[in-house]
């Protein structure tokens, strides 16, 4: 099997997130809605976005409330691209590794990390870092690719052709247990979609086909809202609790 070297670039993610494909547009729009619903932003809050990329989520955060936003990404090209967004050329975004965040403990009111953990080999260490920098009572919103999704196996097979590409699929129950073990009290779980989020393409063939998108979208939102454990990407939201000191 021929392998192609994968590189993280703004062009790649813009091509994916801003695609003309209705299923990809649907996933991007639903992801933005989920972010705002789960984070529940308020003016003055200190918000950290881990894996901010070129700013496709950052912009909806800036528009939602007058927050003190901070962003980190491992790619310098992503950071440069984000800083070219009008009115946000001075956005406090910097290069950083999610497994070693350059912040003190408990300094943020809200922490967001979506579409990122599945692409980090040390995802458990990264999850602990997200909780570490969150203040007690602060809210974490993060997501994983779901090993229970019907797309998990075909996507993993497809990814074998991409040299250097990391995409982990985890069981929601095990990740939930990990977050609880770090001191989180989880109060919400959502799914981005079950069948309408990742169209599979082989040559000119696509499943599901674009011609049935509107029907699939309606059925998919109905199903994902009832069975988020089957979604392609599962979102967790909760607050950091204060552990009682041992006497």
How would you describe this structure to a colleague?
This protein has 247 residues and is of the alpha/beta class. The chain has one domain (4-240): Rossmann fold, CATH 3.40.50.150. The chain is built from eight helices and twelve strands. The protein has helices at 10-17, 22-39, 58-64, 76-82, 123-132, 152-159, 172-181, 213-226, and strands at residues 4-5, 46-50, 68-73, 93-95, 108-113, 134-146, 162-163, 169-170, 184-191, 200-202, 205-207, 233-240. Strands 2, 3, 4, 5, 6, 8, 9 and 12 form an eight-stranded mixed β-sheet that branches. A two-stranded parallel ribbon has the order 1-7. Strand 3 (68-73), helix 4 and strand 4 (93-95) form a beta-alpha-beta unit.
Topology (SSEs and partners):
Elements: E1 4-5, H1 10-17, H2 22-39, E2 46-50, H3 58-64, E3 68-73, H4 76-82, E4 93-95, E5 108-113, H5 123-132, E6 134-146, H6 152-159, E7 162-163, E8 169-170, H7 172-181, E9 184-191, E10 200-202, E11 205-207, H8 213-226, E12 233-240
